[in-house]
Predict the 3D structure of the following.
Amino acid sequence: MKTSLLDGKSPAKFDKHIIGNLLLDVATPDEVRKEKMLIGVRNEDGEIYRLIGATKINSFMNAVEELDDLGLVNELQDTEGTQEGCDAIFSEP
């Protein structure tokens, strides 16, 4: 899985937990957006500051589970389709 911080957005205070719990390769935002499935992570200001890209559904589901375990909420859990270009968007409850 690949990840990138988005320019001009402040990382959330829980960001180090994401990096610690998920095996992610750092890439450019453009490279991450080329992945099949995208996960966005919102900071305390409500902005998506990090993108995580997964090629395989397994990787995507593992990332979703890990983010869930960190106590984050998937805003798109009960939604069909994507929003803001993401298949899942996680934020603090």
